[in-house]
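Risk register update: the risk that structure generation would not scale has been downgraded. Supporting records follow, first protein first.
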Amino acid sequence: MSEVIAEEGHALESTTVKIYRTATVVKGGRRFNFGALVVVGDRQGSVGIGYGKAPGVPAAIEKAQKVARKSLKAVTLQEGTLPHAITSRYGASVVKLLPAAPGTGVIAGATVRAVLELVGVRDCLTKSFGSNNEKNLVRAAFEGLSKLRTKEQIEALRQVDIGKTEVEKRLDVGRRFAPKTIAAPIPAKTTPVKSKPQKGGDKNSPKAGKSAPTAEDKVPDTAAEHEPTVPKPPDTPASPESPSP
């Protein structure tokens, strides 16, 4: 279950990993109490974990979120993956985190996945050993992420030149074989289809082969109506021919 928490600087996302229920036997029966294990992160390199207890589930989640916000830590990432492999232990649980090439995704169980996704990891391989207790796994993954260092930090600490790391080589290969963006296809030109006249249609509709009368055809010619008419001259009878002398 994911929930967005409004923070002053930026928005945090909260995920409830597990809900625990305990019962206390009293004189009147049993009294239940709940505990919530919560992971909080911004998916941009910050993550925190918290555990809270209360008589109700919502109150327990709220307490755990307050504890997780106080335990936020900045994690060093490299283009959506880890800068190097690391193994961390907490209690009887051991978690191994390995960087992966772009497009691999987060290969992990539900508990460790919640921590990696909320911190902003997109490509990572994981393996857990020992106990499967959720509290131990979350704590082991959290401790391992907090110990990550960049190549520059390690070079400054050891006073040596590391060169190109294996993670950088994998990232270069991933960029080389990444699918290129394909331009949107140009839509084909469509020609209008002339509708054929239907047989036995409306009688008032114009017949096939004849165009419908337009507005200009319907307007009477007023100039021709008001033109003055000139009377024709009467026909003169033909004069009889005079006889020749």
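Supporting record for the second protein:
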Amino acid sequence: MTRVFFLLSFLLFSFLGALAATFMLTNNCEYTVWPGVLSGAGTAPLSSTGFALHKGESRSLKALAGWSGRFWGRTLCTTDSSGKFSCATGDCGSGRVECSGGGGDPPATLAEFTLDGSGGMDFYDVSLVDGFNLPMLVVPQGGSVGDCTSTGCLADLNGLCPSDLKVVLSTSDAGGEYVACKSAGGEYVACKSACEAFGSPQYCCSGAYGNPNTCKPSSYSQFFKNACPRAYSYAFDDATSTFTCASADYVITFCPSTTSQKSSDPTPGASNTPPLVLRTAAMLLRISLAGLALCLCL
């Protein structure tokens, strides 16, 4: 019934406004991902709010002009004996595969969009403000105006995550699916933000720290920024993390390869390898050499 409602809503709004973009979601992970979709208040919902993507699968969703919302990936999802559906990371609390208006529980990697915004531009970003649970890449396709730059987080940060931010799931609860590096206690399945881990105003940019003059990057947010230089690392990380494009469609890839990013990134430069790949690789090498919470998956 819920699915029928969303489909009818989408068809109704199709008569009232033009389609602005097609989102293609692709799963390159070695495990199943259940994308979640949350539409912003006052915007037409997409045709689905949650579904399964097995390894190698893709699915497209169409959005109308003015749509805003977010996408994320849920991992290690199961259905219990009562029929309740839940996920170890990114769970939206609906008890079903469809999220039906629920957002993803942090930590979760987010792709956020506002279509046909100021000046007719799309605004988009990949955010680690709510933490990280899997690599993600957003690539505009066919954009005519704006920087139309790919953005995301190519690195799997779950094993590299600072110890006080790591989320560990017991091996028995992981259900046999490979998600991240293993520890003696189980699987590293996500990396919390400092706000989620500690709840302090200086990490959450709240209270007296609720403006960019008082809320500055912390060592924790800098970890995310060094690994994923184009992604939001904390609330006021706008200058290097929000991108614009017009008249584009968007490919959202979970667990992207560096090859797919290289072939689509329009960033100019002398090297055939874009800065996003180079900076991510350099950061991972620095962490490896320093021995900072490095996990080797063999």
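The first strand starts at residue 19 and ends at 27. On this basis the risk owner (M.S.) recommends closing the item.
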